[in-house]
Specification:
The protein has 251 residues and is α/β, with parallel strands linked by helices. It has two domains: 5-72, Ribosomal Protein L25, Chain P (Beta Barrel), CATH 2.40.240; 78-246, SPOUT methyltransferase, trefoil knot domain (Alpha/beta knot), CATH 3.40.1280.10. Helix content is 31%, strand content 27%. It has helices at residues 23-32, 89-102, 117-120, 125-139, 174-181, 205-213, 228-246, and strands at 5-7, 13-14, 17-20, 40-44, 49-58, 63-72, 78-85, 106-111, 147-148, 152-153, 164-168, 191-197, 217-219.
Length: 251
């Protein structure tokens, strides 16, 4: 049987008990999941520990959970960061949700020359994006949250700060793309991998050239031209498979 799974801060772990005060999580537990005293709930402190707990008390303001088991959590030695140029409406929400489920460690929204201006200016959406990521992280029971950071300008991205940094691009041949992607399989831990996916309409030629000069690997994704949101999910899935296939001990 699958039990509810939530994130909590280390400051909410009080001795042998977790005191949950986040109103959103409490409403979800009590109102949606109908959690009651005696029910089992799992928590991650988003740092190094996971907890199997039993509900003692819960109302609309607070939840108390006795810790029955504490276990260690370890972050992956391969950090995967998605630089996603801001997409329109539901497409951005879809990418954030699925990237969190696949295992991206961070999602960094990017403002490029072809990002729609009125979308780029709405920084208030960041809170909503993080909530979507948190919901996906809880749903798939990942050990650590996938963080959505503040948007950055494409000119401020530094591919050289990563062990590998990819830019999927439709003008690169499939065979050439395969060769470059396979480099991920030969990485040794610890390592960081960055992926930049353009917006609707793609990245401009100048943007691709500047990032290539800084060390980015320009790769293809096959014969078909994919939508921006499809390209992000496809590439993250391939990376996850390659890294884990060469490192059997990874989750």
């Amino acid at each position: 049987m699958s039990h509810p799974y939530f994130f909590t801060g280390p400051d909410q772990v009080k001795g042998s008990r977790i005191v949950l005060s986040d109103r959103g999580d409490i409403m979800h537990l009590a109102g949606v999941l109908r959690c009651k005293p005696g029910d089992i709930v799992h928590f991650s402190d988003d740092e190094k520990s996971g907890y199997r707990t039993r509900t003692v008390y819960i109302d609309k303001n607070k939840g108390l959970f006795d810790i029955e088991e504490k276990y260690s959590l370890e972050k992956s030695m391969f950090e995967k960061i998605l630089f996603q140029c801001v997409l329109k409406k539901n497409a951005m929400k879809f990418v954030i949700q699925k990237a969190a489920e696949i295992g991206a460690d961070r999602i960094i929204p990017v403002i490029s020359s072809r990002v729609v201006p009125d979308i780029a200016d709405r920084s208030a959406r960041l809170e909503r994006w993080q909530k979507i990521s948190d919901e996906a992280s809880k749903q798939c029971r990942r050990d650590f949250r996938c963080l959505v950071t503040k948007p950055v300008n494409i000119e401020n991205i530094d591919p050289a700060s990563f062990d590998l940094f990819y830019i999927p691009h439709e003008e690169i041949s499939h065979s050439r793309g395969n060769i470059l992607i396979l480099r991920a399989a030969s990485l040794k831990a610890p390592a960081s991998i960055g992926v930049l996916v353009g917006p609707e309409g793609g990245l401009s030629g100048d943007e691709v050239s500047r990032l290539k000069a800084k060390g980015a690997l320009i790769t293809g994704l096959g014969k078909n031209i994919l939508r921006a949101e499809t390209a992000s999910i496809y590439f993250l899935s391939v990376l996850d498979f390659l890294v884990k296939s060469k490192n059997k001990n990874l989750k």
